[in-house]
């Protein structure tokens, strides 16, 4: 009763897997940048906002860090249409992962924001910088150096976490692997290949992030 | 050597080792449990769908129940062992047999030549008749009329019908979702227009949307036969189950149990044959 591995049938579907990999990256990039914007807004709100803003940020972070992203996307995709809001599977997945990443990044970035020393801000003020200039030239570079490694990890997590979109009909890497497995019945082989592609994607992303961190921020991000 | 190069090398070595171990385990067989081993163990592991009423789903007492569950219990009784129901999603039915996670698979396992290359089947347990479930918003009178880009057909990811529809209704768009509940929800919310499948299994979920005017196109597209899935070359178990199934069909157990759960006779009945 030997199970004989046969990769030939699955390898015929390589172009589909490659196209799906691009969708995986599309979801990861969109959710990452959206999450970064939410994260920085949330962090600034939590550190510098009034009580109402702090409460709103706390509720947001509390909800999204204490529920699985599967449930968040499910609500966006299946519950909102009953209230007249219909999204495509890809849009719901990206928004869900963005909100989820934003909540985690709020906490990560808050650590970066509070690491900015008071005398740095005083120096910026003494130089006559406006609030926006202080943020752009002082706070943001400081935060970037402080939180670069966890930020990189978040991107890798999103590359892998985007597989959840497959459950909502998005043909990203995992969803496409399920489809190919269902039509060829070579499920083990197709998932081994998909796993290999995920390794390639995360290695390339990790190396890129390492080099960007080294050249732009002089940070040696240990992201493996 | 920079640290990140060492890290990459380590990652690739780990990945390659993982693949080698998995592939190696394929060469060194995953042996399915024989009939003797199942009887000696006192338990038979039966794969059933976790959320697919009336085939199998958690009932009011939070116990798994349904047509497949009754059949599974009956098979366990004849063997003199206890049934151990293992939840297998649609796409997991064949892999779970191949990797010896279950001894037999129920869950509406349609016989197809592709699957038969990987697993063995018993004689048919029941039939599946394909039809169209839609709403009053769709005016089509025949399933062939759904071959239009204005229609979106919804299916569960992992069913063989995906390829059937791509071949026979190539112009229609296809939406793949995760569960039967998601299928009917997609149609009710207007995300999809119709389901072309064995609709008997989906009707229970339409009750979640009583305001939707559900419509079944009265046309049987085709009929397929569902056997019990068994690991490839587990011949003694297949032979045993064939005998049991012949008795269950001729004794009326299968038909009675079907009507008990589906509230209607099987559309195309199984004709038991003593020669197999």
Automatic annotation (TrEMBL), chain A:
<comment type="similarity">
    <text>Belongs to the binding-protein-dependent transport system permease family. HisMQ subfamily.</text>
</comment>
<dbReference type="InterPro" id="IPR035906">
    <property type="entry name" value="MetI-like_sf"/>
</dbReference>
<feature type="transmembrane region" description="Helical">
    <location>
        <begin position="55"/>
        <end position="79"/>
    </location>
</feature>
<protein>
    <submittedName>
        <fullName>Polar amino acid transport system permease protein</fullName>
    </submittedName>
</protein>
<keyword id="KW-1003">Cell membrane</keyword>
<feature type="transmembrane region" description="Helical">
    <location>
        <begin position="190"/>
        <end position="212"/>
    </location>
</feature>
<keyword id="KW-0813">Transport</keyword>
<keyword id="KW-0812">Transmembrane</keyword>
<keyword id="KW-0029">Amino-acid transport</keyword>
<feature type="transmembrane region" description="Helical">
    <location>
        <begin position="20"/>
        <end position="43"/>
    </location>
</feature>
<keyword id="KW-1133">Transmembrane helix</keyword>
<dbReference type="InterPro" id="IPR010065">
    <property type="entry name" value="AA_ABC_transptr_permease_3TM"/>
</dbReference>
<feature type="domain" description="ABC transmembrane type-1">
    <location>
        <begin position="21"/>
        <end position="209"/>
    </location>
</feature>
<feature type="transmembrane region" description="Helical">
    <location>
        <begin position="154"/>
        <end position="178"/>
    </location>
</feature>
<dbReference type="InterPro" id="IPR043429">
    <property type="entry name" value="ArtM/GltK/GlnP/TcyL/YhdX-like"/>
</dbReference>
<keyword id="KW-0472">Membrane</keyword>
<feature type="transmembrane region" description="Helical">
    <location>
        <begin position="85"/>
        <end position="105"/>
    </location>
</feature>
<dbReference type="InterPro" id="IPR000515">
    <property type="entry name" value="MetI-like"/>
</dbReference>
<dbReference type="Pfam" id="PF00528">
    <property type="entry name" value="BPD_transp_1"/>
</dbReference>
Automatic annotation (TrEMBL), chain B:
<feature type="signal peptide">
    <location>
        <begin position="1"/>
        <end position="28"/>
    </location>
</feature>
<dbReference type="InterPro" id="IPR018313">
    <property type="entry name" value="SBP_3_CS"/>
</dbReference>
<protein>
    <submittedName>
        <fullName>Polar amino acid transport system substrate-binding protein</fullName>
    </submittedName>
</protein>
<keyword id="KW-0732">Signal</keyword>
<dbReference type="InterPro" id="IPR001638">
    <property type="entry name" value="Solute-binding_3/MltF_N"/>
</dbReference>
<comment type="similarity">
    <text>Belongs to the bacterial solute-binding protein 3 family.</text>
</comment>
<dbReference type="Pfam" id="PF00497">
    <property type="entry name" value="SBP_bac_3"/>
</dbReference>
<feature type="domain" description="Solute-binding protein family 3/N-terminal">
    <location>
        <begin position="43"/>
        <end position="265"/>
    </location>
</feature>
């Amino acid at each position: 009763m030997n199970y004989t591995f046969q990769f030939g049938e699955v390898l015929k579907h390589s172009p589909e897997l490659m196209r799906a990999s691009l969708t995986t990256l599309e979801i990861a990039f969109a959710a990452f940048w959206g999450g970064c914007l939410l994260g920085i807004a949330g962090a600034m709100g939590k550190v510098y906002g009034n009580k109402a803003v702090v409460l709103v940020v706390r509720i947001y972070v509390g909800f999204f860090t204490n529920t699985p992203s599967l449930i968040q996307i499910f609500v966006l995709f299946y519950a909102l249409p009953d209230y007249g809001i219909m999204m495509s599977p890809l849009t719901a997945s990206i928004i869900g992962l963005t909100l989820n990443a934003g909540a985690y990044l709020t906490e990560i970035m808050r650590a970066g924001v509070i690491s900015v020393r008071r005398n740095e801000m005083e120096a910026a003020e003494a130089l006559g910088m406006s609030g926006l200039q202080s943020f752009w030239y002082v706070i943001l570079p400081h935060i970037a150096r402080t939180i670069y490694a966890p930020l990189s990890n978040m991107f890798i997590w999103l590359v892998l976490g985007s597989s959840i979109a497959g459950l909502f009909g998005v043909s990203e890497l995992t969803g496409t692997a399920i489809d190919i497995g269902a039509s060829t019945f070579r499920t083990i082989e197709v998932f081994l290949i998909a796993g290999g592609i995920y390794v390639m994607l995360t290695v390339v992303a990790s190396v890129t992030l390492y080099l960007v961190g080294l050249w732009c921020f002089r940070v040696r991000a240990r992201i493996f | 050597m920079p640290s990140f190069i060492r890290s990459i090398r380590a990652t690739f070595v780990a990945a390659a080792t993982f693949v080698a171990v998995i592939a190696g385990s394929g060469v060194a067989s995953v042996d399915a449990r024989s009939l003797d081993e199942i009887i000696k163990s006192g338990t038979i592991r039966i794969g059933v769908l976790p959320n697919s009423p009336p085939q199998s789903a958690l009932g009011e007492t939070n116990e798994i129940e349904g047509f497949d569950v009754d059949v599974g219990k009956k098979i366990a009784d004849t063997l003199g062992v206890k049934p151990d129901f293992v939840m297998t999603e649609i796409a997991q039915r064949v892999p779970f047999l191949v990797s010896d996670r279950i001894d037999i698979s129920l869950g509406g396992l349609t016989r197809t030549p592709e699957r038969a290359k990987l697993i063995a089947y018993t004689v048919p347990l029941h039939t599946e008749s394909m039809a169209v479930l839609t709403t009053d918003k769709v005016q089509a009178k025949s399933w062939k009329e759904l071959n239009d880009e204005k229609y979106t057909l919804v299916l569960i990811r992992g069913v063989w019908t995906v390829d059937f529809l791509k071949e026979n209704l190539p112009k229609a768009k296809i939406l793949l979702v995760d569960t039967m509940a998601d299928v009917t929800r997609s149609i009710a919310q207007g995300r999809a227009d119709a389901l072309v499948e064995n609709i008997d299994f989906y009707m229970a979920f339409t009750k979640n949307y009583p305001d939707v005017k559900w419509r079944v196109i009265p046309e049987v597209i085709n009929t397929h036969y569902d056997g019990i899935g068994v690991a490839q070359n587990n011949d003694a178990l297949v032979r045993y189950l064939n005998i049991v199934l012949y008795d269950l069909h001729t004794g009326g157990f299968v038909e009675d149990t079907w009507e008990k759960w589906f509230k209607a006779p099987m559309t195309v009945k199984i004709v038991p044959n003593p020669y197999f």
